[in-house]
Design goal:
With about 170 residues, this protein is of the alpha+beta class. The protein has six helices and five strands; from the N terminus they run αβαββαααββα. The protein has a five-stranded mixed sheet. The longest helix has 18 residues.
Amino acid sequence: MLIKIPEVFLMDEKILWQKVIDQEKLLHFSSFDANDACALGLFMADEAKKAGINMLIDIRLNGFQRFRYAPSGITPENERWANRKINLVNLTQKSSLFTFCKLKVENLDLKRDRMLDPMDFAAVGGAFPIYVEGAGMIGVVAVSGLPHIQDHEFLVSCLAKYLGVTL
């Protein structure tokens, strides 16, 4: 069962970009540590199971992997995509879909204009910064397994539900 893509995600990249900017403003934690990474990861894994979605979930704090969920059917390719998305979020401190939209709207290319190797960085949806109030970005949560817009939608819907935030 795939997640239905909300209508806003079928709009142009400029509108999508603004939606992602709004999500990044709302999805902040008051605190977050290794125990929270485990709790969030288990919550997301349960949400994926309930939706019948087979996906990799990876949560990193300060560069260290604190949670990983890789059910049967996940491939090394999913892991490569997640790592590339995580690298981009660590560099930009923005969600990977934010950068995807920014590049599209500004007619830029990750390799040509940002000098980033696409084997190491992926400007596609599915990775989101973990922001803590008063501390800024302290980590990244990433998923891989669906088309990239759906990866992003699954991820932000889980964060919103977990945080009790209405998007």
